[in-house]
Automatic annotation (TrEMBL), chain A:
GO BP: transmembrane transport
Family that this chain belongs to: Belongs to the binding-protein-dependent transport system permease family.
Compartment(s) of residence: Cell membrane
Alphabetically ordered keywords of this record: Cell membrane, Membrane, Transmembrane, Transmembrane helix, Transport
Membrane topology according to the record: Multi-pass membrane protein
InterPro entries with a match to the protein in the record: MetI-like, MetI-like_sf
Signal peptide: none
Membrane spanning residue stretches: 12-37, 69-94, 106-123, 155-178, 208-228, 259-281
Major localisation: membrane
Residues in ABC transmembrane type-1 domain copies: 69-280
Annotated protein name in UniProt: Sugar ABC transporter permease
Automatic annotation (TrEMBL), chain B:
InterPro entries per the UniProt record, alphabetical: BP-dep_ABC_trans_perm, MetI-like, MetI-like_sf
GO CC terms: plasma membrane
Ranges annotated as spanning the membrane: 12-33, 69-94, 106-129, 141-161, 182-207, 238-259
Membership in a protein family: Belongs to the binding-protein-dependent transport system permease family.
Topology within the bilayer: Multi-pass membrane protein
Identification of the protein by name: Sorbitol ABC transporter membrane protein /mannitol ABC transporter membrane protein
Domain ABC transmembrane type-1: 70-260
Signal sequence extent: none
Pfam families for the chain: BPD_transp_1
Main location, first listed in the record: membrane
Keyword Oxidoreductase: no
Example GO BP: transmembrane transport
PANTHER family: INNER MEMBRANE ABC TRANSPORTER PERMEASE PROTEIN YCJP (PTHR32243:SF18), MALTOSE TRANSPORT SYSTEM PERMEASE-RELATED (PTHR32243)
Length: 290, 274
């Protein structure tokens, strides 16, 4: 009796979320795809019109494009490596019995709550500034020449900042997974004479594998669209040395007003994200069934 | 013997963990320290003992009207979260309590909208905002932030609601509770903790969102993310003032974050890690 009624009620309750998300996803995406086949420049509207795939060709022949894809991937892969390996080590360390574990956790997780512009500015001026930064102070203390981080190693500097922001996230999630490991299993392995390393490889690591997958997938979503950190520190430079795909699209759209090219870049970003998303959804979907 | 080894082990672990933790926390700590220095002190080289002056804080407020941005941040993060909850609670509720064959697909699809890179829709959104006069308006940005976080809100609520046992509802019905009584006395008390932690996490996410909040605002609706980004220009470079502004921008959310560690794990992993 109730089922028919309940079902329509359920549909009614779900409708606002579904409709809102659908509109928010589809409408702008369709506009972007449409613009990617147009010549459109608000500052110079004379030549506007349909241009086929030439925006993609232009975007592709732009040397900045390959550089930006390379930078995007470098950033994602390096930060993933640092945060996952560092996160596992840190989680193992914090999981040991110690005094003040709660405070250690709070200190370690803190960078995650710092908004990206603040994180970038603090690193840029307080830590990495070639004259007044702490790194420069340390270099001078040892009689070395301070490094001009954003001039000489812009990508490395941005990788360090972004890794600092995401290491806490990886650590916290891996620590949570680690703490749910059955103590009896650990004891049994110890009784059987398993050393620290074999315990880690055969017991701890398999137990954490799902958490590691989740960390990689979620970080990848966010790392593919790093923006504020670049805007505030290097502004993509010197040249295009630290321009990633989101930043290039932003430059084309809102600074140069080459909307067609920017949209082509946006579509490429969507394709890139979808490849990642495909794997992400499968992994998260598996967890749902459990 | 065994005891002393344990104590030794514990001492080493404590020392190592504290050193690493302090290193990770150092940029934040040093910013807070520098915010209590004068401008001359701030550029005089490394020192962790400030003179304790509050002049930078006073100047940040006097020169740039810090509190306007702070107020915008509060309004946008809390407002967008409440909007998202209003839309998401019914959806999560129905998916948790009367799931259909398609529930899982809908959830996955909602999550997939989160994967769309913001830049891909930057210009269309910019156009829509410009043509509807929503650029630099608090309402427009609030809706924007609501949409960005809606998938996470639905997901988080869903994982919480799913843990409410259905048998309790049946028992209440057997005892003759009306639908209204059921909602008020049985379901709400059990749902409130989940809703509260969803709210907390989403306020944090909205507070720190740094793409749309920078690009879609100029002055009126600009929150702290936009305010801080304006310090990146060379003429804005005063170390102590920058530190004071940064400290003010992160302090409230840092403290909230400390209380929400558990929910953070759960919310950001979509319930996969608890």
């Amino acid at each position: 009796m109730a089922t028919q009624q309940t079902r329509s009620l359920a549909r009614f309750m779900m409708a606002p979320s579904v409709v809102l998300l659908f509109v928010w996803m589809i409408v702008p995406l369709v506009i972007t795809i449409w613009f990617s086949f147009q010549q459109y420049n608000p500052l110079n509207p004379i030549r506007d019109g349909f241009v086929g795939f030439s925006n993609y060709a232009l975007f592709y022949s732009n040397p900045a494009f390959l550089q930006s894809i390379l930078n995007t991937l470098t950033l994602v892969v390096s930060v993933l490596l640092i945060t996952v390996i560092g996160g596992i080590l840190l989680a193992l360390l914090i999981d040991q019995p110690m005094w003040g574990q709660g405070i250690v956790r709070i200190l370690v997780i803190s960078p995650f709550f710092v908004m990206p512009p603040v994180a970038a500015l603090v690193w840029k001026n307080m830590i990495m500034h070639p004259q007044y930064g702490v790194f420069a102070d340390i270099a001078r203390f040892f009689g070395a020449q301070p490094i001009d981080w954003f001039g000489q190693h812009p990508m490395l500097a941005i990788i360090i900042i972004v890794a600092w922001q995401w290491l806490p996230f990886a650590t916290l999630i891996l620590l949570t997974a680690l703490q749910s490991l059955d103590g009896e299993q650990k004891e049994a392995a110890e009784m059987d004479g398993a050393g620290f390393i074999s315990r880690f490889i055969y017991l701890t690591l398999p137990h954490m594998s799902r958490a590691i997958t989740v960390v990689i997938l979620i970080q990848t979503i966010f790392l593919l669209s790093v923006y504020a950190e670049i805007l505030v520190t290097t502004n993509g430079g010197p040249g295009y040395a630290s321009t990633n795909l989101p930043f290039l699209v932003y430059q084309k759209a809102l600074l140069e007003f080459k909307i067609g090219q920017a949209s082509a870049g946006g579509v490429i970003a969507v394709i890139l994200a979808n490849i990642v998303a495909f794997f992400a959804m499968r992994a998260v979907g598996k967890n749902l069934d459990k | 013997m065994a005891r002393s080894v344990t104590t030794q082990h514990k001492t080493i672990a404590t020392a190592a963990a504290w050193i690493v933790a302090l290193l990770i926390f150092f940029p934040i700590l040093y910013t807070i320290i520098t915010s209590f220095k004068s401008e001359q002190e701030a550029i005089q080289g490394f020192s962790i003992i400030p003179s304790g002056t509050m002049e930078s804080y006073a100047e940040v407020q006097a020169q740039s009207g810090y509190f306007k941005f702070f107020f915008n941040s509060v309004l946008l993060s809390v407002g967008s979260t409440i909007l998202a909850l209003l839309v998401a609670i019914p959806a999560a509720w129905s998916m948790a309590f009367s799931p259909t064959k398609r529930t899982k697909d809908i959830l996955m699809w909602m999550l997939s909208t989160k994967m769309m890179p913001a830049v891909a829709v930057l210009f269309p959104i910019y156009l829509i905002f410009r043509d509807t006069g929503l650029l630099d308006s608090r309402i427009g940005l609030m809706v924007m932030l609501m949409l960005i976080n809606l998938p996470i809100v639905v997901w988080m609520l869903y994982t919480y609601f799913r843990e409410i046992p259905g048998e309790i509802l049946e028992a209440a019905r057997m005892d003759g509770a009306s639908l209204w009584n059921e909602i008020v006395y049985v379901l709400t008390p059990m749902a409130v903790p989940g809703i509260a932690s969803t709210m907390l996490l989403n306020i944090i996410l909205a507070w720190n969102e740094a793409f749309w909040t920078i690009r879609l605002t100029t002055t009126e609706a600009a929150p702290l993310t936009a305010f801080i980004s304006s310090f990146s220009s060379p003429q804005g470079l005063f170390w102590a003032k920058l530190s004071a502004a940064s400290t003010l921008a992160i302090a409230p959310i840092l403290i909230m974050g400390w209380f929400s560690q558990k929910q953070l794990v759960r919310g950001l992993t979509f319930g996969a890690v608890k």
